[in-house]
Design goal:
- This protein is an all-beta fold and 120 residues long.
- Helix content is 0%, strand content 62%.
- The chain has strands at residues 2-7, 10-13, 18-26, 28-39, 46-51, 57-59, 67-72, 77-82, 91-101, 106-110, 114-119.
- Strands 2, 4, 5, 6, 9, 10 and 11 form a 7-stranded mixed beta sheet that branches.
């Protein structure tokens, strides 16, 4: 099995920064595309940023220029650096990864989420 664990959330003032981590563990052969999503109360979960296995990235328009997604393949970890945070960034942030296991089966996994709260 594969587990994803997010960390790094918390309470920050507007204009501040946070760095989220998504660490994968288990029977992993390769981690493919990884995405960070967020869900605010009463809203649907939405993609924030995504990084492909080759390192290509894309971002939601609302976070372009403020958030940076990166990955450390040696550590099976993906990061989301969030700068210039705004109150509207407040949400639970989840990571999602397409993982190829040692059995050569590829499945999609979700972490448990981490709360990010930005005060004005």
């Amino acid at each position: 099995q594969v587990q994803l664990v997010e960390s790094g959330g918390g309470l920050v003032q507007a204009g501040g920064s946070l760095r989220l981590s998504c660490a994968a563990s288990g029977s992993i052969l390769r981690i493919n595309t990884v995405g960070w999503y967020r869900q605010a109360p009463g809203e649907q979960r939405a993609l924030v940023a995504r990084i492909l296995s080759g390192g290509s990235t894309n971002y939601a328009d609302s976070v372009k220029g403020r958030f940076t997604i990166s990955r450390d393949n040696a550590k099976n970890t993906v990061y989301l650096q969030m700068d210039s945070l705004r109150p509207e960034d407040t949400a639970v942030y989840y990571c999602n990864a397409d993982v190829t296991r040692r059995s050569f089966r590829t499945d999609s996994y979700w972490g448990q989420g981490t709360q990010v709260t930005v005060s004005s």
